Each structure stands twice: as structure tokens, then as C-alpha cells.
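cron nightly-structures :: item 1 of 1
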Amino acid sequence: MKNILIIEDDLEIVQLLEIHLTDQTYKTSKATDGAMGLKMALENNYDLIILDLTLPSMNGIEICKNVRAEKSTPIIMLTAKSEEIDRVLGLEIGADDYITKPFSIRELLARIKAVMRRTNTIKEDKKDSSLITIDGLKIDVDKRKVLLNEDKIELSPKEFELLVLMANNPGRNYSRTELLNIIWGYNFNGYEHTVNSHINRLRAKIESDMANPHYILTTWGVGYKFNEDIYS
């Protein structure tokens, strides 16, 4: 049975979510305070977290950042705001999806299933390659650890997922739209510029010469690929 943590201070929304998630055979846990929600998220293993943006004691952005520093648990953020800045911010800190209040329960359930399905697909893709070593770059998928010439490289969750995806598929050309759909999901269509910014930050951390990248190459008119020529 999948276990979902609800971090939301509106008790009516919490009760509504509990009823419908239980009907879908999900097990639920809840926290109505940001600090308590973070504590529960870090101390327990959940299959997904539904996270409100505005909470007492600690907001959803801070909770998401802290969870992402420790875990890859899928996160769907809830917010009463609809400005693009909030949506982009959710992308930047590692939220897997984003839904604006008021929302349809049917839509939220569909988003939950889509996020879990995408997460399971990514896990399956990683299963055979828990340790990737390429020309001075070492990626420990299970520990989410990256070393470059034995120096630890700190990556954000999405930077890490981009690196693992492409390193597992050297020479495979990915368009920005493909990367957005695989790593962030279809609900973020139209935010391809986010892929560019993540690739640029990733390159800044692993490439010695940004003008002549060694690992992540640009395929003009298509998108990006991992350099297959450096595999021994």
C-alpha cells in the first residue's frame, strides 16, 4: 500500500484528501504545521508528499528544499497562488508537480498517479546502473553522490536526475521538451527554459571549459546529449 504524507494546515482540505486517498487504497499521514511536516518527511519513508505552499512555522518552499537535500520522495505542491514565479520556483527547488487551489480531486488523483508512475519509471531506468563511472566522473545513483576526479560535486535533485538520465544513455539526443517531460512531467509544458538553466548550472559544476563541454554536449537544432566518445 502506498503511503502519502499530507502537509496542509486547512483541516477541511486535509479531511477531503484523506477520504479520497483512502478510497483509492492509499495510506495517509498528516501534519498541519510546517516544522512537524518536515520532521515527519525526514524521519519516515513516504511514497509521495502533498505539500501546501503556505504553512505555519515553515513554508512549503523551505520544506521542499530540506526534503530534497536528504531524499528524492516525490512532492506535489499545493498553492492558492497562480503566478508563474511560484510555478518556476517549484521547478527550481525540485517539486515534481504543482496544482493550484481550488483544485479538482479527480485532477489531483490523476497527478498523483502520473508522478508515481514517472518516479517508478526513473527507478527502473536506474536499477541496472547504480554506479556510473565515465572519464573521471563517478555517479553513485543509490547514494545520490557525484565525484569529479574524486572531488564531491553538489547537485540539486533535478541536476542529478538530468545527469543520471543522460549518462545512462550516452549518445542519445534529448530535446528540451523530452527532458522536461521525463524529469519534471507533462504538467510543466511550456517551461523548456528551465531545462536550459539546469543544464547550464550542471555544466558549470562538472565541465572545466563551459565553451567546450566534455560531458554534456549541445546537439544544435535538437537539444542535448551525453558524450558517447568518452566511454571506454
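cron nightly-structures :: done
The chain has a mean pLDDT of 87.
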